[in-house]
């Protein structure tokens, strides 16, 4: 019992940042976000607040990642004072859709476990 609680504690503590994602998601999305200090939690929360359905979020993410622009973005204008609009994704459509599903699934799980407050 004590051992289970201990292991569960370790599992929860690893969910603190963007790092528990599956490997392809980590490699194709979060490595760069972490390097450039883009807060994916903050971004995902904005998507959730703006769009009520996961299908719409999926479509909007796909559109943005294929052709990023301030016009397609849901981020506030001051976000682009800090970041330059990124390059279109190099991933093919099939892989991109998988990563978007992974991304949504990742935040669905982690949002239930902690309230991120690391965006300044
Ligand atoms: C080479 C670096 C890099 C990679 C790889 C990358 N991103 Fe980003 N991403 C950024 C940067 C920089 C921004 C902030 C500037 C912008 O929004 O264009 C950003 C912004 C975003 C946004 C904000 C969209 C909006 O409405 O403004 C989303 C969502 C996102 N990334 C998801 C992903 C996902 C999902 C992947 C993997 C499929 C991914 N990113 C891969 C660098 C990257």
* Mean of residue pLDDT values: 83
Instruction: Please report the distance between the alpha carbons of the first and last residues.
Output: 39 Å
Strand-and-helix sequence, N→C? Answer: HHHHHH
Rg over CA atoms, rounded to whole Å, is 15 Å
How many extended strands? 0
Helix count equals 6
What is the count of distinct domains?
1
Q: What are the bound molecules? A: heme C
Shape: globular
Structural class: mainly alpha
User: β content, as a range?
Assistant: under 5%
Biggest sheet, open or closed, and with what strands and sense? none
What percent of the residues sit in helical stretches (DSSP H or I)? Answer: 55-70%
Low-confidence stretches: 13-18
How would you sum up this structure, described in words?
The chain has 120 residues and is an all-alpha fold. It has one domain (2-111). 61% of the residues lie in helices and 0% in strands. The protein is built from six helices and no strands. It has helices at residues 2-14, 23-35, 40-50, 54-66, 79-82, 93-111. Helix 4 (54-66) crosses helix 6 (93-111). The chain starts with a helix and ends in a 9-residue tail after the last helix. The chain binds heme C (HEC). Heme C (HEC) is lined by residues 28-29, 32-33, 36, 38, 43, 61, 64-65, 68, 73-75, 83, 85-86, 89, 96, 99-100, 103.
